Every structure is written in C-alpha cells, then in structure tokens.
Amino acid sequence: MAAAGLRPGMGRLLETAPALGPWPRLYSTSPALAEVLRLPQKQLTKVLYPLRELEQHLVSDTGPGLIEQRLFDPSLEDMARAESVFAATARNRIEYLSSAVRLDHAPSLQQPEVCFIGRSNVGKSSLIKALFSLAPDVEVRVSKKPGHTKKMNFFKVGKYFTLVDMPGYGYRAPEDFVDMVETYLKERTNLKRTFLLVDSVVGITKLDNIAIEMCEEFALPYVMILTKIDRSSKGYLLKQVLQIQKFVNTQTQGCFPQLFPISSVTYSGVHLLKCFIADVTGSLK
Ligand SMILES: Nc1nc2c(ncn2[C@@H]2O[C@H](COP(=O)(O)OP(=O)(O)OP(=O)(O)O)[C@@H](O)[C@H]2O)c(=O)[nH]1
Ligand SMILES: [Mg+2]
To answer: Which of the listed residues 121, 128, 164, 262 should we mutate to test ligand 1's pocket, taking the one with most ligand atoms within 8 A of CB?
Structure first.
C-alpha cells in the first residue's frame, strides 16, 4: 500500500484513516489529513509537499537551495496536531468575529494574529475557506469578481489565534484601502505574520512589488504564498517558482525564504500551510 517508504509516524496516522476504498482522482478533493494519507505516495507528496514534488523535476546539478523547501519541514504528527487546531469542535470554536474598515474598529485581542493580503482576486478568501474546511459553519465569501472583500474580516480560531481576511489591492480595491490596510500592518501589535499571496500563474506584478516594499519598509515578518497552482502545468509552475524564489532570495529581507504554493481547489499545500500558521502562532505547544 501507499505507506511504504514514507516517513516515521505516517503508518500510525494511516491506521486512523477511515476505510474509504480506492482513491478515484489524481489528487485530493478531501481536506482531511487522514484521507490524504491514503493516497498513493506520488499524489500524497503532491498534496502535502508541493515543492518537494516540483523539485523532483529539477536537474540534479542545479545545486541545493534553488527551492528553499526544507526550512519548515514538520512531521506528520505536527501536521495532524495543526489539523486539530483548524477543526471546529464544541471545545474549539472557530467563528467569524467582526469586520472593520478602520484599525480602531478592529476587535481588541491579545491572541496572536495572522493576516492575508494580496491583489484582488488572487485567492485570499478561497484560501481561508480551504483552511476552514473542517469548520463548515464558518462562512467565508469568495467571488469571481475582483474586489469582493471590502473590509478586514476577523475570524477567531479557538483559543489559539485570530486570522484576518483583507480586501485586495488593485482592481476595484476599496477607496480607503491604503488607510485601512497600511495602518493595520503598521500598528497591529498582536500581528505575528503577514501572508502575502501571489498568483502563481501571473507571477509578481508591479502591485505585488508595492505590497512587498510596504512589508519591507514596516519590517514585517512575511511569507509568500503562491496561489492557484492547480491552474498550471508542472513545467510552467516550476519556472514560476524558481523565478519567485530567486526574487525572494535576492530582493527581500523580511520574507521567509520558503515559498508556500497552494491550491484551494485540490488542497495541495494547504495542510503544510495550516501547520506553519499553527507553528508561528505558538498553537502547537
Ligand atoms: N483554480 C483555482 N481558482 C481559485 C483558487 N483560489 C481562488 N480561485 C478563484 O479565484 C477567484 C477569486 O477568489 P477569491 O478567494 O474571492 O479572491 P480574493 O483574493 O479574496 O479577492 P478579493 O476579495 O476581491 O480581494 C474565484 O473565482 C475563486 O474560485 C485556486 O486555488 N484554484
Ligand atoms: Mg476576498
């Protein structure tokens, strides 16, 4: 079965997977880790470690570090623990808290906070919806039309942290975007990490560059997420990843050197990202 050759701990996690029968698709359509662990190894790597899967297509003499993917390399046990942080239960309430158009309207909380910024339509709300797929009562609105999210939307993840879905910059951005988002990024004291989403099909645009410069200027610790990876061929995605990785390595100071490619459709990369968020907010202790 698919477990052969997998890392320690995976076998035990597999035992907890429900008996589902053979997996019919090329990748996961289920957000639950236990079900992902039942996939054949190739598909499993693609869902849990998309960079590792891409790296296999690099020629061997290109040298290490071309894709910085092993800085954050959690065990499957950590991924399972992170999953429980993101799973709603009676004791772990995951809920929409409030929306704000100004920082002084934001809920005042002591919990660590993470926020998601990026161009309108890049997939911020879709990603948050995918992160909350085990909390189906939480409503996160997504739309084909850019500029859908107009306010900062705050969500509480149990006793662990809050997560903020931001309006997008660029096309149909709200008028007060700059006041709202810049002030938030500059002054929110419990903000632990900013996740900057870049469309993997489009690459880093001029507008993304402005956001990157803002993160750098405010000395924010930020992380680049590459969205919509289900939309490209492997070859194209690899080219984009290498280009963006080079940019991060040479042009940024505050950006975490490991990229997080994700698809909110196939859940590829979403489990790893959940684990990273749980880790940076101190939720895995
Ligand atoms: N194929 C694919 N489509 C995606 C993915 N993520 C988002 N989309 C689509 O992209 C569009 C925009 O998604 P949203 O999540 O609303 O984007 P947003 O960044 O929140 O946009 P604003 O709220 O306008 O700033 C929708 O049509 C989504 O279905 C993805 O991973 N794969
Ligand atoms: Mg949105």
So the answer is: 121
Report how far ligand 2's centroid is from the alpha carbon of 177 (Å).
13
Q: Phi and psi dihedrals of 196, rounded to 5?
A: -105, 115
Q: How far is the CA of 163 from the centre of ligand 1 (A)?
A: 17
Residue found under tokens 């507008």: 207
| This model's pTM is above 0.80 | yes
| Predicted confidence (pLDDT) per residue in 46-81, tens digit | 999 999 888 888 766 555 566 777 899 999 999 999
* Pairing state between β 152-157 and 161-165: antiparallel
Distance CA 179, CA 176 (A): 5
What domains can you pick out in the chain, each with its CATH number?
Answer: 92-281 (3.40.50.300)
Give the number of whichever ligand sits closest to the CA of residue 268. Answer: 1
CA of 38 to the centre of ligand 2 (A): 32
Choose among 49, 39, 54: nearest CA to 73: 49
DSSP 91: S
Q: Using one digit for the tens of pLDDT, what is the confidence trace for 235-248?
A: 999 999 999 999 99
142 CA distance to ligand 2 middle (Å): 6
**Ligand 1 within 6 A of CB of 126:** yes
Q: How far apart are CA 239 and CA 247, in angstroms?
A: 13
